[in-house]
Structure formats: C-alpha cells, structure tokens
Amino acid sequence: MTHPRSVPVIRVGTALAALLFVGSACFWHRKAVREAAFDVPEGEIALRVTNHNFLDVTVYALHNGQRTRVGTVTGASAQVFYLPARLLGLGREIQLLGDPIGSSDFALTETLIVQPGQYIEWTLETDLRRSSVGVY
Description:
Elements: H1 6-28, E1 44-51, E2 57-63, E3 66-73, E4 77-84, E5 93-100, E6 107-108, E7 112-113, E8 120-124, E9 132-135
Parallel strand pairs: 1-8
Antiparallel strand pairs: 1-4, 2-3, 2-5, 5-6, 5-7, 8-9
C-alpha cells in the first residue's frame, strides 16, 4: 500500500517529466526557412495595397517632385504592384498617394526609405486618415 503523501509527489514528478519532454521537443524543433514575401523582378520594388475602403482608389508614387500613376485598387480588395526602381528618389525615398474615385478624401504616406530587397505594404482603411504603411 502506498503512503497517502506519495501520490501528489508522483503526480508532480510525472507533470515535470512531461514538461521537460515537451520543452526539449520545442527547443530542438527547427524553424522553417522563411521564403520571400513576393517574387519581385530584378530592379523593382513590390507594393502590396490592401483597400478596406468601399471606393476604388488610384495609387500614385510621389518621387523627385513628380507624381506617377501606379494603378487602381478596387474597393474591398488587395493588389500587388511592381514599381521600377527609378521611382525611388536619390535617397531611395518615395511617398504614396491614394486618391479614391468619387471622393475628395485622400491618403498620403510619410516619406518611405526602401532598401534593396525590401517591399512596401500599405493598408487603406475606410477612414483614409487611419491608413497605415510599412516597409519590410
């Protein structure tokens, strides 16, 4: 017959053994190699625009004092554009302008600096002032 106090010790010991086994399995698990987010043609920059707005939005790149039309993103959809590197300014800088069709509102990013191999993700919200952008 087992002593009444030995049962909790066995349970604690079993729990610790299971935790040690699971913990070591997690430690030795290899992480998958991260693949590129986009298959970008040489010399171009990927721009992914997610449009949560219900209006279609025309996207422009502002660079070197010029405005270049990139394309249009349909309302409530996403689109990937490939921008030629020439659209980057001298300091590899660019701004994005979103002009919704049928509205006087607009979305304008801050100046973005894009290094080789990076891509831009721009999320246009229903209230364009709340839109967000990131360079990855």
